[in-house]
Each structure stands twice: as structure tokens, then as C-alpha cells.
Amino acid sequence: MAELTIDAVVFDVLGTLVDEPAGLREGIGALTPSPALDAPGTERLLLLWQRHIEREQRRVVDGDRPYLPSDALDREAAEVVARAAGAEDPGAVAAPDAVETLARAARRLPPWPDTVAGLARLAGHFPLIGLSNASRTALLELNAHAGLRWHQALSAEDARTYKPDPAVYRLAVTVAGLPPERLLMVAAHAWDLRGAQALGLRTAYVARPVGDPPTASDRFDLYAEDLADLAGQLGVS
């Protein structure tokens, strides 16, 4: 710990502070009429959503498609899921308003049990910066729904790209007005931490059931079981 001196903490949001799959499952479950989808059917549709978002964000980062905010990509994913649900049952094809409702489910995500208390605990000792691939509008609604506490919330929309593009992490460095090595990036996704690490930020992996675990070759500064564990490692009582 003596070697880790930080002045601000930067948090990923989706998956790290909120349970994204849980919120999407609820939205998917409301998409089709009864009888409700069984668990394997819901998981299959959830995977379709996730793969679409991951692929299209990567295409934006790689320059293969123009930037679109997360709201637009969520609506694309909702349409993909609605079509797939209708393929199993022609009577289950969702109306446009149902697709829009499903897309908005991506903004109504429950926090992990330790999130709210953990942020409050850390906020008394460090400036907290949220840094999300969610659009500005989506991030506002996400924060309100989950009760997230920030000193500053930043959207990748301001960089017109997505993490792990360095331009997104640079937003936090610019706002903090600090050298990158004085910022601690916290995420449940190893790919996210690698992106921050490449720009010189310090890194902390927080284990979540839906995250991207580190590989044997990853070397992050901290590894925490949850936000309480992270706060303890940072010396926050």
C-alpha cells in the first residue's frame, strides 16, 4: 500500500456498480406475453443483447461505424432481442413501444448490495468520478435509479467513442486535473482496467459475478472482493 498514493477514484458503472444482466433480464421477461420465457430462453436473449452491444461498441472504437450513443445501440439490441423472441412464437413479436420499453431497461439496473454504502464510505475520503460507456442521458437515469453517489459523472459520449479507447479514460484525467498515476480506476472488467492502465492510471479489480476476470498475465494494483474490501485496502475506515 505504501507504493499506491492516489488522489481520486474513478469507477466503471455497468457491471461494476450495477447488476446489468439482472435489469436486462427483467426487461426481457416483460417483452413477451405469458407464458413467460423459461430461464434458458431468457439467457439466450440476454446473450444476444450483450453480443450486439459489445460488437457494435468495438466497431465504433475500431472506426468501422460512426459513433452512436449508447441509447441508440440499446434500441438496436432491443430490436434484435424482440425479433429473436418472435421467431420462437410469432404471436410474441413486440410492438414498437414494447421495444422502446425494453431498450430503457438498460437504464433501470439495480445496484449491487455493497454499492451504495461503499460509494458513500469512499466519498468521504476521495473525489469519486463515474466513467461509463452509457450516454449522458442514460447515465443520469442510471445514477438516479441505483442511488449512485458521485462528485462527477462522465460519459464516453463526451469522447464520442467507447472504452477501452484511451480518449474515454482521458476524460477522467482531464476533469481531475491530476497525473494519471494519481487516479485509481476501479472495475469488474479486466479489459476496462487494461485500457486505463495503458494510459497510466492505477487499477483496482473488484470481483462481480458478471465481470471479466483477470488473466494470469494481468497485474493490477489492487484486487478486492467488494467495495468494502476496496475501502479497507485504501485505508478508509
What is the element layout, followed by pairings?
Layout: E1 8-11, H1 20-29, H2 39-61, H3 70-88, H4 96-104, H5 115-123, E2 128-132, H6 136-146, E3 152-155, H7 166-176, E4 183-187, H8 190-198, E5 202-206, E6 222-224, H9 227-233
Number of helices: 9
Helix and strand run: EHHHHHEHEHEHEEH
Helix content: 40-55%
Q: What is the C-alpha radius of gyration, as a whole number of Å?
A: 18 Å
Q: Can you give the mean pLDDT?
A: 92
Give the strand tally.
Answer: 6
Q: State the major sheet.
A: 6 strands, parallel
Structural class: alpha/beta
Describe the structure.
A 6-stranded parallel β-sheet has the order 3-2-1-4-5-6, sandwiched between helices. It is globular. Helices cover 46% and strands 11% of the residues. Helix 1 crosses helix 2 (39-61) and helix 3 (70-88) crosses helix 4. The chain has helices spanning 20-29, 39-61, 70-88, 96-104, 115-123, 136-146, 166-176, 190-198, 227-233; strands spanning 8-11, 128-132, 152-155, 183-187, 202-206, 222-224. The chain is built from 9 helices and 6 strands; from the N terminus they run E-H-H-H-H-H-E-H-E-H-E-H-E-E-H. With 237 residues, the chain is an alpha/beta fold. The model is unreliable at 87-93 (pLDDT under 50). Strand 2 (128-132), helix 6 (136-146) and strand 3 (152-155) form a beta-alpha-beta unit. The longest helix has 23 residues, at 39-61.
